[in-house]
Amino acid sequence: MKTREEKIFQLIGNIIMWLAALMAIIPLILLLSSSFTDNNALIKYGYRFIPTVFSTEAYSYVFSTGNAVLRAYFVSFLLTFVGTICSLIITTMLAYPLARQGMPFRGALTFIVFFTMLFNGGLVPTYINYTNVFHIKDTFWAILIPSLLMNAYNVLLTKSYFVTGVPTEILEASAIDGASEFKTFLSIALPMAKPIIATIGMFVGIAYWNDWNNGIIYLSNTNGKEWYSIQSLLYQMMNNIQYLAQNAQNLSNAQEGLASIPSASVRMAMAVMGVLPIVIVYPFIQNNFVKGITLGGVKG
Questions:
Q1: Which of 41, 61, 233, 288: disulfide with 72, CB 3.0–4.6 Å?
Q2: Which residues contact 209 (CB under 8 A, 6 or more apart)?
Q3: Mean pLDDT value across the chain
Q4: What is the full DSSP assignment across 145-179?
Q5: Domains of the chain and any CATH numbers
Q6: The whole model's pTM is what?
Q7: Rounded Cα gap, residues 183 and 195, in angstroms
């Protein structure tokens, strides 16, 4: 039986959570509504939850590039899938030995991983290495490898989960039964670490899906255009619209071209296209995501 104070506390907590949920959902509804609003009506009447004048003009413009959008979606899905799988493999295989008490130089290796969270070589040396040494410019590897493939924070979070969420007694019992360290890792540690794996997978997947920086840096507008992700493509479209708007007075056909572009509503449509897959996928892994964050951050 709950006391009066507990009921009041629960009521206040529920109200706060409902307000937080509304603060997250309302902008998405407004974004979706604006993307289906006629551009002139959007400029005249502003953003509304119900379209003043319903129109699919913004989406028609985005998809008017032929197969570019569909190919960019394919690249984004491929990049997110491959990048997430590779990142999970690297992260778990590095975090597990760092969590084992008997591993030689465990403290030094943990410090090296942590050190990379504080310092890095900088953009220019990184770019020179990837382009002149590894020659990944204008290839799929250019959007897969730099920055996102392995993250020190994810490694330390996974290490903490292995320490707190996987009992040492079970691992020792496996060793007594004759299982190798690698078999123990695959058969026992990984299945028990599903929450943190789902959490890291969510982090990495969102990072890969939302990444446009690597595409801008390592993909050129000529040879690397075929590897544009949806974010890079939408970013390029936005730059083109902005260029027309800024140079409308100097270019003879800019005014006419800009007039045919739903410049306000197309921004909303691009945002919807970028966020929609994440909104669809998140509810399916929410439980493991929350559990992984809770347990993974308990102990270092």
A1: 233
A2: 76, 79, 80, 229, 231, 277, 278
A3: 82
A4: STTTS--HHHHHHHHHHHHHHS-HHHHHHHHHTT-
A5: 60-296 (1.10.3720.10)
A6: 0.78
A7: 20
Cα separation, 23 vs 113, whole angstroms: 36
User: What is the average per-residue pLDDT within 177-202?
Assistant: 87
Contacts 24+ apart (CB under 8 A), 165-169: 165/192, 165/193, 165/195, 165/196, 165/295, 165/296, 166/99, 166/192, 166/193, 168/101
Joined together, the tokens standing for residue 226 give: 């075929």
Q: Which amino acid appears at position 279 of this protein?
A: V
User: Residue 101, class by beta-carbon neighbours within 10 Å (0-12 exposed, 13-18 middle, 19+ buried)?
Assistant: exposed
**CA 225, 227, 233, 239 torsion: positive or negative?**
negative
pLDDT in tens, 67-126: 788 888 899 999 999 999 999 999 999 999 998 887 888 888 889 888 888 888 888 888
Q: Which long-range contacts (CB under 8 A, 24 or more apart) does 238-243 make?
A: 238/267, 238/270, 241/266
What secondary structure letter does DSSP report for 129? Answer: I
**Phi, psi dihedral angles at 63 (to 5 degrees):** -85, 0
Cβ partners under 8 Å of residue 72, min gap 6: 228, 229, 230, 232, 233
Q: How many CB atoms lie within 10 A of CB 194?
A: 13
Instruction: For residue 244, give both structure tokens.
Output: 């027309």
- Two tokens, residue 247: 């140079």
d(CA 97, CA 9): 43
